[in-house]
Amino acid sequence: MPWRKFEAKDVVSDMRVLILIGLFANTFNALAQNRVEVYPNDRLLWSEMLMHAENGVIREGCDWRGQVVYTTQPELIFAGYSTSAFDLAYSVREGKLIQGDSYFSDAVMYTAEVRGNELQLFIGDSTFPLDLVYTLRPHPLDDGSFILYKEDSISAFDRVCIFRGMPSMEELYALLLSQALL
Question: Which of 102, 122, 133, 180 has the fewest Cβ atoms within 10 Å of its own Cβ atom?
Protein backbone atom coordinates (compact mmCIF):
# COMPACT_ATOMS: atom_id res chain seq x y z
CA MET A 1 0.00 0.00 0.00
CA PRO A 2 1.63 3.23 -1.05
CA TRP A 3 1.78 6.03 1.50
CA ARG A 4 0.09 9.15 0.39
CA LYS A 5 1.60 12.50 0.75
CA PHE A 6 0.34 14.65 3.63
CA GLU A 7 -1.36 17.75 2.25
CA ALA A 8 -2.84 20.83 3.93
CA LYS A 9 -6.14 20.49 2.06
CA ASP A 10 -6.71 17.11 3.78
CA VAL A 11 -6.29 18.76 7.19
CA VAL A 12 -8.76 21.49 6.26
CA SER A 13 -11.25 18.89 5.05
CA ASP A 14 -10.87 16.88 8.27
CA MET A 15 -11.28 20.03 10.36
CA ARG A 16 -14.51 20.88 8.52
CA VAL A 17 -15.89 17.45 9.33
CA LEU A 18 -14.91 17.77 13.00
CA ILE A 19 -16.46 21.25 13.23
CA LEU A 20 -19.66 19.96 11.63
CA ILE A 21 -19.83 17.05 14.10
CA GLY A 22 -19.20 19.46 16.99
CA LEU A 23 -21.94 21.83 15.84
CA PHE A 24 -24.38 18.95 15.46
CA ALA A 25 -23.54 17.62 18.93
CA ASN A 26 -23.97 21.07 20.52
CA THR A 27 -27.28 21.62 18.74
CA PHE A 28 -28.53 18.20 19.82
CA ASN A 29 -27.41 18.88 23.39
CA ALA A 30 -29.22 22.24 23.42
CA LEU A 31 -32.41 20.64 22.15
CA ALA A 32 -32.16 17.86 24.72
CA GLN A 33 -32.03 20.46 27.51
CA ASN A 34 -35.57 21.51 26.62
CA ARG A 35 -36.95 18.15 27.79
CA VAL A 36 -37.60 17.37 31.45
CA GLU A 37 -38.09 13.75 32.48
CA VAL A 38 -39.51 12.38 35.74
CA TYR A 39 -38.33 9.04 37.15
CA PRO A 40 -39.33 7.14 40.29
CA ASN A 41 -35.72 6.34 41.32
CA ASP A 42 -32.00 6.85 40.63
CA ARG A 43 -31.79 4.21 37.92
CA LEU A 44 -33.24 6.65 35.35
CA LEU A 45 -34.40 3.83 33.07
CA TRP A 46 -36.23 5.00 29.96
CA SER A 47 -38.91 2.34 30.41
CA GLU A 48 -39.65 3.53 33.98
CA MET A 49 -40.18 7.19 33.07
CA LEU A 50 -43.34 8.47 34.74
CA MET A 51 -43.86 11.77 32.93
CA HIS A 52 -42.01 14.15 30.66
CA ALA A 53 -42.34 17.77 29.66
CA GLU A 54 -41.26 18.93 26.23
CA ASN A 55 -41.98 22.32 24.65
CA GLY A 56 -44.59 23.03 27.32
CA VAL A 57 -46.52 19.79 26.81
CA ILE A 58 -46.75 17.43 29.81
CA ARG A 59 -47.19 13.79 28.78
CA GLU A 60 -47.44 10.50 30.61
CA GLY A 61 -44.77 7.90 29.91
CA CYS A 62 -41.59 8.17 27.90
CA ASP A 63 -42.58 8.94 24.32
CA TRP A 64 -44.83 11.17 22.22
CA ARG A 65 -47.75 8.69 22.35
CA GLY A 66 -48.42 9.30 26.05
CA GLN A 67 -51.59 11.07 27.10
CA VAL A 68 -51.23 14.86 27.31
CA VAL A 69 -52.18 15.89 30.82
CA TYR A 70 -51.32 19.60 30.77
CA THR A 71 -50.01 22.25 28.40
CA THR A 72 -47.98 25.11 29.82
CA GLN A 73 -47.22 28.64 28.69
CA PRO A 74 -45.51 31.40 30.66
CA GLU A 75 -47.57 31.85 33.85
CA LEU A 76 -50.38 29.54 32.61
CA ILE A 77 -51.27 25.84 32.90
CA PHE A 78 -54.02 24.44 30.67
CA ALA A 79 -55.84 21.12 31.04
CA GLY A 80 -55.06 18.68 28.22
CA TYR A 81 -53.61 19.61 24.86
CA SER A 82 -55.11 23.08 24.66
CA THR A 83 -54.28 26.74 25.13
CA SER A 84 -57.88 27.92 25.14
CA ALA A 85 -59.05 30.25 27.91
CA PHE A 86 -61.83 27.72 28.58
CA ASP A 87 -59.21 25.09 29.50
CA LEU A 88 -57.16 27.33 31.81
CA ALA A 89 -56.68 25.28 34.98
CA TYR A 90 -54.01 27.21 36.90
CA SER A 91 -51.93 30.36 36.84
CA VAL A 92 -48.41 30.73 38.19
CA ARG A 93 -47.43 34.17 39.45
CA GLU A 94 -44.36 34.95 41.55
CA GLY A 95 -43.87 31.23 42.24
CA LYS A 96 -47.45 30.72 43.45
CA LEU A 97 -49.84 28.14 42.00
CA ILE A 98 -53.25 29.78 41.69
CA GLN A 99 -56.60 28.23 40.79
CA GLY A 100 -57.75 29.47 37.40
CA ASP A 101 -56.97 33.11 36.76
CA SER A 102 -57.95 34.40 40.19
CA TYR A 103 -56.30 37.35 41.89
CA PHE A 104 -57.65 36.55 45.38
CA SER A 105 -55.23 35.32 48.03
CA ASP A 106 -57.47 32.41 48.99
CA ALA A 107 -57.00 30.95 45.46
CA VAL A 108 -53.26 30.42 46.09
CA MET A 109 -52.78 26.67 46.40
CA TYR A 110 -48.98 26.40 46.73
CA THR A 111 -46.03 28.75 47.05
CA ALA A 112 -42.48 28.06 45.84
CA GLU A 113 -39.47 29.75 47.38
CA VAL A 114 -35.79 29.44 46.52
CA ARG A 115 -33.53 29.03 49.54
CA GLY A 116 -29.87 28.63 48.66
CA ASN A 117 -29.64 25.96 45.97
CA GLU A 118 -32.99 24.42 46.97
CA LEU A 119 -36.54 25.07 45.88
CA GLN A 120 -39.14 24.56 48.59
CA LEU A 121 -42.89 24.17 48.07
CA PHE A 122 -45.33 25.30 50.76
CA ILE A 123 -49.09 24.83 51.14
CA GLY A 124 -51.16 27.95 50.44
CA ASP A 125 -49.89 31.50 50.51
CA SER A 126 -47.27 30.78 53.17
CA THR A 127 -43.56 30.18 53.63
CA PHE A 128 -43.90 29.04 57.24
CA PRO A 129 -41.77 25.92 58.00
CA LEU A 130 -44.78 23.88 59.16
CA ASP A 131 -46.41 24.39 55.74
CA LEU A 132 -43.43 22.89 53.86
CA VAL A 133 -44.49 20.03 51.57
CA TYR A 134 -41.52 19.31 49.25
CA THR A 135 -37.90 20.32 48.71
CA LEU A 136 -36.22 20.09 45.31
CA ARG A 137 -32.42 19.69 45.51
CA PRO A 138 -29.69 19.06 42.93
CA HIS A 139 -28.67 15.41 42.69
CA PRO A 140 -25.28 15.05 44.40
CA LEU A 141 -23.89 12.59 41.83
CA ASP A 142 -25.64 13.52 38.58
CA ASP A 143 -25.34 17.03 37.16
CA GLY A 144 -28.58 18.13 35.54
CA SER A 145 -30.76 15.94 37.78
CA PHE A 146 -32.81 17.07 40.75
CA ILE A 147 -34.37 15.07 43.59
CA LEU A 148 -37.76 15.91 45.11
CA TYR A 149 -37.88 15.11 48.84
CA LYS A 150 -40.77 15.10 51.29
CA GLU A 151 -40.69 18.19 53.47
CA ASP A 152 -37.09 19.14 54.41
CA SER A 153 -35.70 15.61 54.46
CA ILE A 154 -32.42 14.45 52.91
CA SER A 155 -33.10 10.75 53.45
CA ALA A 156 -33.17 8.38 50.48
CA PHE A 157 -36.36 6.92 51.96
CA ASP A 158 -38.11 10.29 51.61
CA ARG A 159 -37.42 10.71 47.90
CA VAL A 160 -40.56 11.28 45.91
CA CYS A 161 -39.16 11.36 42.36
CA ILE A 162 -36.18 12.49 40.31
CA PHE A 163 -36.19 15.12 37.57
CA ARG A 164 -33.67 14.92 34.75
CA GLY A 165 -33.46 18.53 33.63
CA MET A 166 -34.73 21.55 35.50
CA PRO A 167 -38.38 22.32 34.80
CA SER A 168 -39.77 25.82 34.64
CA MET A 169 -42.08 26.75 37.51
CA GLU A 170 -45.15 26.03 35.35
CA GLU A 171 -43.75 22.66 34.26
CA LEU A 172 -42.83 21.74 37.84
CA TYR A 173 -46.34 22.41 39.10
CA ALA A 174 -47.91 20.61 36.11
CA LEU A 175 -45.64 17.57 36.55
CA LEU A 176 -46.47 17.35 40.25
CA LEU A 177 -50.20 17.85 39.63
CA SER A 178 -50.24 15.16 36.95
CA GLN A 179 -48.70 12.68 39.41
CA ALA A 180 -51.30 13.67 42.07
CA LEU A 181 -48.52 14.94 44.35
CA LEU A 182 -50.23 18.30 44.87
Answer: 180
